[in-house]
Structures are given as structure tokens and as C-alpha cells.
Amino acid sequence: MKLKWLYPLLAAGLLLTGGLAGAAPASAAKVPANFAATPLLPKNQISTKAGYFDLKVTPGATQVLKLSVTNPSDNTRTLQVIPVNATTADSGNAVYIPSKRTDASAQTTFTKMTSGPVTITLAPRQGKTVTFHTQIPTAGFSGEVLGGLFVTDPHATKAQTENGDASDFRLNNRYAEVTAVALQCQPNQTFRTQLKLAGVGVRQPNTHPTAFARIRNLTPALFGRMDIAARVMQNSTGKQIATENLHNGSMAPNSWFDYQVGLGSKKLTAGKYTLKLHVTSGKRTWNFSGTFTLTRKQIAEHNSVIKSDEQPAYWWLWLLLFLFLSLLLIIGAYLLGKRRSRDDDDDDDSDDSQSTNDTHA
């Protein structure tokens, strides 16, 4: 199954600037024009309107890929151009970034077939053409192989995930861009998407246990419009303790990702739990289920985080304050009423005395 509508999003390039990935910019300032990368499309380009490499390749042939990199700034810049594979990040989206992720279902990968990274130095307002050679296997390959040419400053900081890959690639005050590369031996091939649950488990980022399900795409094709509805059930009670949803995700060909599900905001007990997934893409539907165990140590850590997040119950203090103020108002009203009653009695006595004096007069 081929979804060409996803390619322009990737071909437009990946811009990563400032701080942490996903953080809001401090201002609306424009990204500095550190460099620009433009693919020089060869004759075997399938779509001449695409701004990325969309190539029909021949088994056993060597495909030449040329990328023009220019430096429009007034400063000399040293850049790296790195071939990367298309992978799927744990966010549930296909990405073209440096990563060590591979899946055993792949016949081959873009980085296996392509020559290594190239470092170039560009003087102010200078441009250079970077050339890569991709050796297509003699037997060819089914479907499509997706990758990219990732251009970045070699001093950029790469933040790796806990399992050692760069599904989250972060740059500190740098600029990066990727040009997608789509290779096909038979462009008219179509495939029925095959997903598989590789297993479920628990990991502990920041000491807070989180359930995860590893989902594999065994198909040599990119697909999108992926929605996931996940539920965590407690086996001993049958109660649902947590949910998580993904909307409009995508997966790269022959790739995997770990879909993470938080364990909710209530205290739990040690024992077995079940993670259930309902996955859809277009008219296709998959239902996966797997069991995992939460140990006493993991439960203690989860419950301690929940306890620290709980706010103290101050309602009784507010109730006491309300009762105290109400009592003050009642006492005040009583004293004020008593004082007015006394004043009225004094006025009556004064009037009686004045009336007696008038009679004697």
C-alpha cells in the first residue's frame, strides 16, 4: 500500500531549532538561514513535481544521488550530510532522522546500500554538490525503501532515548534539514498492510512505571491515518485503570515503535495487568492484547508519584472558617439587635417623662 500524500510532508525538510523538541519558541523570530539543501533529481525520477528523490531503480545498478548544499550566510560553516533510514518514532509517526532502529522484516535498508556520511566546509555564500552512491541488490527488493539525506551542523546535540536510539533528535541552537529518498524497483506494486504486536512490557522513565506495546509494520510500504485506542485492565478486578489514544499516526516501511501508555492517576496493587490495543488505518482494523506484571517495587514507585501529585485536602479548614464567620455574624446580629432594643426602651422612657412634665405644667 502506497500513500504518496505523506511524502511531500517529509520532502519539505525537517526543521529543528532551539531547546527541546516540541517546546514553544520564545519569540516569533525567523529561523536563521544557515544553509539550504536542494536535490538534483536524476532522469529516473518518477515524479518530476516532487521536491525529493522518488526513484525507480534497477536491481544490481548503482544509483547516484546528488544534493546541492549552499551557505547563504556571511560565516563559514562546516556541515555533515548523513544518510538515514525512515523509521517510526515512539510518538507513532514516521520520521527521517538519525536512528539505530532496524526491523528484521526489512530486505534491505537505505543506509546499508548507501555510502557513508560526508562532511563539507562552505565559505560565505558558497555552494557545493555532495554525491552519494547507492548500490541496489542484485535481486532487487519488494515494495519501497525509504530514507533521507540529513544535513546538520556536526556540533548539534543529539539526545538519545533510553533504549539507545535517536527516535527523538534534538538540536541546541542549530538548524537541520532532511531530503527524503524513496526507492522502488517496481513502482506499481501494492501491499496489504501487515501489523504485528511484538510484545508488551513496562519501562520506568523518570522512575514512573509506564506500560508499552511494541508494534511492528511488516509491510515494505509507508502507511498513515493510523489511530490507536489503548486500555490497561487490572486482571484481578477486571477494572479499566488507564487509557491512551493516538490520532493520525504513520509508520515507515518495515519499522517498529513502542506505544507508551501511562498507568493512570490512582494507586495500584502489584499483580498482572492486560494492555489492549484497537488499531485502525482506513478500513483496516487490528486488535492486540498482551499481559504484563507490575512488581511491588514498581507499584511503590507508581504510588509514591501519585501521592506526591495529590493535593492536601483543605476542605475542612474552609468549613471551620465558614462556621466561625457564620458564628461571628450571628453574634454580631444578636448584639446589634439587643443594642437597638435597648435604645428603643430608652426612647420610650424619655417620651413618658416628657409627657408627665407637660401634665404637671
Automatic annotation (TrEMBL):
Keyword Magnesium listed: no
UniProt domain WxL Interacting Protein host binding: residue ranges: 168-303
Secretion signal, residue range per the UniProt entry: 1-23
Alphabetized UniProt keyword annotations: Membrane, Signal, Transmembrane, Transmembrane helix
Transport listed as a keyword: no
Span list, region Disordered: 340-361
Domain WxL Interacting Protein peptidoglycan binding: 35-152
InterPro entries: WxLIP_HBD (IPR021759), WxLIP_PGBD (IPR010317)
Pfam families per record: WxLIP_HBD (PF11797), WxLIP_PGBD (PF06030)
Membrane-spanning intervals of the chain: 313-336
Protein name, UniProt field: DUF916 and DUF3324 domain-containing protein
Source organism per UniProt: Levilactobacillus lanxiensis
